[in-house]
Structures are given as C-alpha cells and as structure tokens.
Amino acid sequence: MDYLLTEEQKMIRDLCRQIGEEKIKPVRAHYDETEEFPWEVVKVFAESDLMGIFIPVEYGGMGFGVTELSVAIEELSRYCGGIALALAGTGLGTFPILLFGSEEQKKKYLPRIARGEALAAFALTEANAGSDAAGIETTAARDGDHFVLNGTKQWITNGGEAEIYTVVAMTNKSRGARGASAFIVEKGTPGFDFGKKEKKLGIRASATRELVFQDCRVPKENLLGREGTGFLVAMRTFDASRPGVAAQALGIAQGALDEALQYVRTRVQFGKPIGSFQAVQHMLADMATQIEAARALIYSTSRMYDAGVGDTSKESAMSKLFASDVAMRVTTDVVQIFAGYGYMKDYPVEKMMRDAKITQIYEGTNQIQRNVIGLELIKEAARRHK
C-alpha cells in the first residue's frame, strides 16, 4: 500500500534499507551467535544521523517524530531486530527527557544522544516488578541536594552500553504508584554498576543487563519532572515508544515474508516450485494481509501521536499488541514453509522467529496491552454517556 510518505520519510526508509542490506545483513548471524554488541553498525547509525531522527533540531537532531522513527525501526528490523534495538532502545531512554526534561536537562543530554555519542536506556523493570510497574522496590532517598538510589533494575535494554539512563525509583513508598519518581543517571556515577549480561532466546545482538545502585548519589537537578510523577513519566513514555516496538515487530515479520517469497520460488518439490501449491499461497496471502494491517495501524497511530491530537494510549497499545502477535504468527508460519531448513541456522528465519517473541513481552506484555485497551474503551464509553 502507498502510505503517502513525505520525501523526507522516503529518504529515511531508503537510507535504512541501504544500511540493512550493506551493513546489517552480512553480520547479523555473527552478532546473533556471539552476542556481542554491534558497535560497528551503531557507528553507522550515528554517522547517518539516525540516532537523532526524533530529537528536535535545537538540540542537534533531525527534528522528526515518532512516525519517522517507526519507519526507520521497521526498515532496520527487516534485517535484524536485535541490531535495530540499539536505536529503538535509545528512543525509549530518551523520550522521558524529551517529554519531561527541563531546558537545562535537554541541552545537556539530547545533543550527545542526537550525535550518537551516547546511547540511552530506560530502567523501570525489576525482579519483582514487571507488569506490576507500581511494585518497584528501588528507592531514592532525599539527602540535601542529592537523591541516594539503592536497588537493582533487571532486563534493561542497552544496559552497560548506554551512557544515559532514565531510572524510576520510589521516593515515597507509602504513596504506591504516586510515590515513584524518575531520574537521569549517567554511566560512571559512583555507586552505579552493572550486573550480569543476560543470555537470551532472541535479540541476542542487543545488550540486556542488570543495573545495580548502591548508595548512588544523584544531584537533585537530575530529577525528571516533579517528585512523585515517575509512574506518569513511564506511562507517557510508553505512549511514544510502543509504536516503535510495533514497528520492530512489523519489520521482523516483513523480513521473514521477504525470505519466504524468495524461497517458495526456488524450492522444488513434486517437480515444481512450492509457491505453486495453493496451501503455500494461502499462507503467504494471510501473512501479507496481516502485515499490511499492522503497518496501517502503526503508521496511523504514529501520525496521531505526532499531530498531538490527544491521548494515544489505546492506539499505541493496539499497535504493539497487534503487530507483535502478527510477528509471532508470521515468523512461525515462515519457518513452517521452510520446513526442516527453517529450523536450521543456515537460513535467517529461525532467528527471526526467536527475535519476534520478545515483542509480545517487553514494554508491557500483550496481556497488559489488552488491559490498557479495555480500560480506555470503558473510559471513552463513560465520557460519551455522561
């Protein structure tokens, strides 16, 4: 379908496609196997100004929005969802600063991110606080002109590689979710260290680590927004970032379909290409239809968000829910089309299937997305019938 992309959006798409073909495709199996962080490719992102796509011009970025970021993440994820996550994870860590940062905070941190000199990361999840984000146990106690952080964050994307971390901690446990606050913490701050790097099923080119805070003193100037608004910071961040997760899932699905379309034309069984069999054609038709529906939803949601037309919590959750479910269905079916070969590392589709799974889990499981959507629907109905 033609989504009437602007010339700038087409340029971003084409640039990412070129990077994917020339820089990502030849090395994706290597990074998946070794689990190294793909710094060589990330440098290419930086040199191409991709790290600053969504950052305003006045802070050194390209001045675009969630739509352009989604276009870029989709295209890069067609080649490797794990490598693309260096950009997507940085977006997740940067949105809190864009949305809630003071002018001083923006001037201090955004130019470094835009230039690709520093990756960012977002730290909310803990061992006992995943879907229940209000159950976080990391604390931030006020001490003069500082807050002292103690606790451990788990499964943090870009952990250990990023220089700038947005961290949610409890400043007043007695207030529950309203007692959480958000802070900017820089790598190298005394008392801030990293735990183990996780070994994962998929997205193995992305670093996922524990963050450990032991009497880590953070200047009060690093508080994002007001004290007690940490949960709001997280939820508003997800409204902006979930279309990006959806775009990652979409790109993985599209990449898998691309591989399938090549394969069915060349794989011969019973004396003819398997693409001539109706059973295979129907699988391809279902996959293509689901992918296009996901793309339409993601692009519409991204444009809504960028237009500032109102709360997009429901639509962002729908995008993430639908696209990630599509990615899992499509990659599973593509492995089936490849049959025994699909199960082997000789082809990239088994990796795509492994990479797809996380998109149903992180930034809120798809069960949580359904909660968000259902509650928003009920609220809307209540407003209409007042």
Q: Layout of helices and strands, plus pairs?
A:
Layout: H1 7-24, H2 28-34, H3 39-47, H4 66-77, H5 81-100, H6 103-114, E1 120-123, E2 139-143, E3 146-157, E4 164-170, E5 180-186, E6 192-197, E7 208-219, E8 223-224, H7 230-266, E9 268-269, E10 272-273, H8 278-307, H9 313-338, H10 349-357, H11 366-384
Parallel strand pairs: 1-4
Antiparallel strand pairs: 2-3, 3-7, 4-5, 5-8, 6-7, 9-10
Helix pairs in contact: 1-4, 4-5, 4-7, 4-8, 5-6, 5-7, 7-8, 7-9, 7-10, 8-9, 9-10, 9-11
Your description of this structure?
Helix content is 52%, strand content 15%. It has 386 residues and is α+β, with helices and mostly antiparallel strands. It starts with 6 loop residues before the first helix and ends with a helix.
Give the gist of this structure.
The protein has helices spanning 7-24, 28-34, 39-47, 66-77, 81-100, 103-114, 230-266, 278-307, 313-338, 349-357, 366-384, and strands at residues 120-123, 139-143, 146-157, 164-170, 180-186, 192-197, 208-219, 223-224, 268-269, 272-273. It is α+β, with helices and mostly antiparallel strands and 386 residues long.
Helix content: 40-55%
**How many beta-strand segments?**
10
CATH fold field value of the largest domain: Butyryl-CoA Dehydrogenase, subunit A, domain 3
Uncertain regions spanning at least 5 consecutive residues:
none
How far from one another are the termini? Answer: 40 Å
Shape: globular
For CATH, the homologous superfamily of the largest domain is named as Butyryl-CoA Dehydrogenase, subunit A, domain 3
CATH domain class name of the largest domain: Mainly Alpha
Strand order of the largest sheet: 1-4-5-8
Give the tally of structural domains.
Answer: 3
Strand content: 15-25%
Written as H for each helix and E for each strand, in order along the chain, the element string is HHHHHHEEEEEEEEHEEHHHH
The CATH architecture assignment of the largest domain turns out to be Up-down Bundle
Q: Rg from C-alpha positions?
A: 21 Å
Q: Structural class of the secondary structure composition?
A: alpha+beta
Query: Can you count the helices?
Result: 11
Q: Determine the mean pLDDT.
A: 97
Sheet with the most strands, sense and barrel status? 4 strands, mixed
